[in-house]
Design a protein that fits this description.
Elements lengths: L5 E5 L4 E4 H15 L6 H10 L7 H11 L13 H11 L4 H11 L16 H8 L4 H15 L4 H23 L11 H28 L10 H20 L6 H16 L6 E5 L6 H16 L4 E5 L5 H12 L5 E4 L8 H13 L5 E5 H9 L3 H6 L7 E5 L9 H13 L4 E6 L17 E2 L8 H4 L2 E4 L11 H15 L2 E3 L4 H8 L3 H8 L7 H9 L12 E4 L6 E3 L5
Parallel strand pairs: 3-8, 3-9, 4-6, 4-7, 5-6, 7-8, 11-13
Antiparallel strand pairs: 1-2, 10-12
Helix pairs in contact: 1-2, 1-9, 2-5, 2-8, 2-9, 4-5, 4-7, 5-9, 10-12, 11-12, 20-22
């Protein structure tokens, strides 16, 4: 009778998971999670080979001792990933496919630098030479793999995987050579690194998912299928279109918003994958971009819609808008530091959802979490990476991205759109020229709105008057007070912006408030409003430059101040 090898043990009911079951499940899930079709076979091989080291007699003995809670021997080796990497690497020695799979297996419990910063030696070579594995261990591992493979001929599967990777390599080469200039839109090494990250993500998520499901005694999670997603997108479209029909279109500004929204809807069926949504503030970017995303998701059968913004302040508001449109709370996941769970059960559920972003169709998150998923080496960040493929990513307020990440973002966006079938929308009233940098530039986005300048006049709400000449050396509290009184008489409403809390407090203590209240010019402005204004962090310190803004629409408003914090 053949010996049975085990991978995991569930203590609650004394159930073992066989090594064969775990390897088969992980291979299947890794292939399923890998969103690059030409990389799916490589992902399957990584999953199939990743834990074969658990078939070593030494590891099985350690496993049994751990179950019986016996102490490990001093210096005992429990490594189980090295053997799988070595065996995989020897199938097609010196090939890119073998090295990528080998690297993924070595690092499926935590990614390491590819090259040692101390001596410049590739970590893959150090890993190969670190453990003295016997020829017998390798032969036994190869025998187990052929047994576990069943009807699959591993040799032929490897050949097909290499053919697919060669084709993927051609696509990457063409992307790196776009524009006829090397590194104009990114370099080949970076894009290959993104492919390796996809392998990491697929393998780590597949391994973690199968292990967790066994230990928790539950069926393997299955992401929403295409039919379920289409129903969600269709319901969202119906709800949103109904809401838009109820909007008034009497004023010029309303007509402009409707025209912008319609162009976003029309762009959803176009073949472009990278868009620029440039509209003035107040033009309804949230609903317009959501309209595009829902129609595009339905038309092109996308897996997720991501809404990414650099500021948490707007995330919760926009998440509520999206929830109201979809009509179902559990279809939208907020992933940022301001999320508060009511109890431990809710926290555990939330932690599971943010681990891989795959259980919920719409994710609202910060730029920090997005960039962590793209580049950070933590395991949970790696797990989420594959969820970005075949999705729609709405990037709001992109002008606020730090300069130091621009080139990395450009290359990652090019990879996602050209290799991973992802659609990206860059939203802002002031578009940065990511596609004009010297190298590693963004592929030229398609303009979602034709002739955006035609709408600027309708949404122009502020006219600037420079009053700095009278305050070239700064302004005293008394001068500010006098300035406020003058403008209040003319316009009836004044907003003051200063640069420090001290200055805000000083202004708050000024008799000007009592005077204005007695005049009853600010109806509804009470001591309560005074208190709010006096403690507001928007009232920031002394500013050497003073400016005035006059509202062209509605109540006139002047602002004194310059660059606040």
């Amino acid at each position: 009778m053949e010996r049975q090898y085990y991978a995991h043990y569930r203590k609650e009911n004394h159930i073992y998971q066989t090594l064969e079951e775990h390897i088969r499940n992980t291979a299947r899930l890794s292939r399923e999670y890998c969103s690059i079709d030409l990389l799916k076979k490589a992902a399957w091989l990584a999953g199939f080979y990743h834990d074969i080291g658990k078939g070593r007699n030494e590891w099985q003995e350690y496993f049994e001792r751990a179950i019986t809670e016996e102490k490990r021997k001093n210096g005992e080796k429990t490594d189980h990933s090295t053997l799988g990497g070595i065996v995989a690497g020897k199938v097609m020695p010196n090939s890119l496919l073998a090295e990528m799979i080998e690297t993924a297996i070595y690092n499926h419990h935590g990614i390491r630098d590819s090259v040692s910063v101390q001596d410049g030696v590739a970590q893959i070579w150090k890993r190969r030479n670190k453990y003295n594995l016997s020829d017998e261990s390798e032969r036994n591992a190869s025998l187990l793999l052929r047994t576990y493979a069943g009807d699959i001929c591993l040799e032929e599967y490897w050949k097909k995987a290499r053919t697919d990777l060669d084709e993927l390599g051609k696509q990457i080469f063409m992307l790196a050579k776009m524009g006829g200039k090397t590194n104009l839109y990114g370099n080949k090494q970076f894009f290959l690194g993104m492919c390796e990250r996809m392998l990491f993500s697929s393998l780590i998520d597949g391994d973690f998912r199968d292990t967790a499901d066994f230990m928790n005694n539950q069926e393997t999670f299955s992401a929403l299928n295409e039919q379920q997603l289409q129903q969600i997108w269709e319901q969202g479209i119906q709800n949103l279109e109904k809401r838009l029909e109820n909007f008034e279109n009497n004023e010029k500004i309303d007509i402009c918003r409707a025209m912008i929204s319609l162009q976003c809807k029309e762009a959803a069926v176009c073949d472009d994958k990278l868009y620029r949504l440039s509209v003035p503030t107040g033009a309804g970017k949230t609903l317009s971009s959501l309209r595009f995303a829902l129609h595009c998701a339905k038309h092109k059968k996308k897996r997720h819609i991501f809404y990414v913004a650099p500021f948490r302040s707007i995330l919760e508001q926009n998440a509520d808008v999206i929830r109201s449109v979809l009509g179902v709370d559990n279809m939208v996941l907020e992933h940022h530091s301001d999320v508060i769970c009511e109890d431990e059960t809710q926290m555990e559920h939330y932690e599971r959802l943010i681990e891989n972003w795959d259980e919920v169709p719409v994710i609202v998150t910060t730029a920090v979490q997005f960039f962590n998923t793209l580049f950070k080496d933590k395991k949970r960040n790696l797990r989420r990476f594959h969820s970005l493929s075949n999705s729609i990513i709405i990037m709001d307020e992109v002008q606020a991205f730090p300069i130091k990440v621009i080139q990395l973002f450009n290359m990652a966006a090019n990879f996602l759109t050209e290799i991973c079938d992802t659609t990206i929308v860059l939203c802002t009233a002031t578009q940065p020229l990511f596609d004009r940098v010297r190298e590693n530039r963004l592929l030229t986005p398609a303009n979602m709105i034709k002739n955006p300048g035609d709408y600027e006049e309708a949404f122009e709400r502020v006219e600037f008057h420079d009053d700095t000449e009278q305050f070239l050396n700064g302004a005293t509290g008394e001068q500010i007070t006098q300035f406020i009184l003058e403008k209040e008489v003319i316009y009836g409403q004044v907003l003051v912006v200063v640069n420090t809390k001290t200055c805000a407090e000083s202004l708050y203590q000024s008799p000007i408030w009592d005077f204005l209240e007695r005049k009853n010019k600010w109806k509804g402005v009470s001591s309560e409003y005074k208190n709010v204004c006096g403690t507001s962090q928007e009232y920031v310190a002394r500013n050497p430059r003073w400016a005035c803004r006059e509202r062209k629409y509605g109540l006139h408003q002047h602002t004194i101040g310059g660059g606040g914090s």
